[in-house]
Structure formats: C-alpha cells, structure tokens
Amino acid sequence: MRTTVLDVDMSHTHIADISDDAARFVQGSGDGLLSVFAPHATAGLALIETGSGSEPDLVAALERLLPRDARYQHQHGSAGHGADHLLPALVAPSR
Asked: How far apart are CA 70 and CA 81, in angstroms?
C-alpha cells in the first residue's frame, strides 16, 4: 500500500482540482484502488466534470443550500462559519 499526502491551499478558492495529482499517483501504482480523504471538519470531496462550468455551479448550489449568515447554532469564527461545518454532510470528505 502506498500513501501520498497533498497539501492543497484553499485560502483563496472554494474548489481545487486534484485530478492531475490523482492521475500521477495511479500511474505509479499499477493496479489497485485510489481512495482520497480530506481530514478536516469543513472540507468535502466532489467528483464532477471540470472545465465545463460545473465548478461555479457547484459553488452556487452549495451557497444556496448553506447560506453564510448567522442562522446557525455553531457560531464561533466568522459569520456563517456554521455552514462550513455542515458542508461534509452534503459533500463527503472521502471518495
């Protein structure tokens, strides 16, 4: 079994495409199963078509489902941060 850790800077974006990283890992592994996990309470992994406008559509859909305002019981941090903690219930942290 081989493990690779990716450090993905999400400070300036909502979506990061890790397709190339996954492809490089698979090419060096031969046969097997690729499992990806985001070890954070406010992150998720989505499997979507990229480059066709799906990325902003996903962000817009999540913003409709999880508005960033003061409605949440979980209220530490910035306004709307409770939405971040609900994200993994809708976009799973592993694929």
From this structure: 8
**Residue 63 is encoded by which pair of tokens?**
């913003």
What is the total count of domains within the chain? 1
> Could you tell me if residue 1 is inside a domain?
no
- Asked, for residue 3, whether it belongs to a domain, the answer is no
Three-class SS state of 37: strand
3-state DSSP helix/strand/coil % of the chain, to nearest 5: 35, 0, 65
How do residues 9-67 score in pLDDT, each as one tens digit? Answer: 887 778 999 999 999 888 877 777 889 999 888 999 999 998 899 999 999 999 999 99
Nearest to 47 by CA among 88, 24, 18: 18
**DSSP H stretches of helix in 1-95:** 19-27, 54-65, 81-90
**Contact present, 43 and 93 (Cβ < 8 Å):** yes
What are the tokens at 22?
């996954």
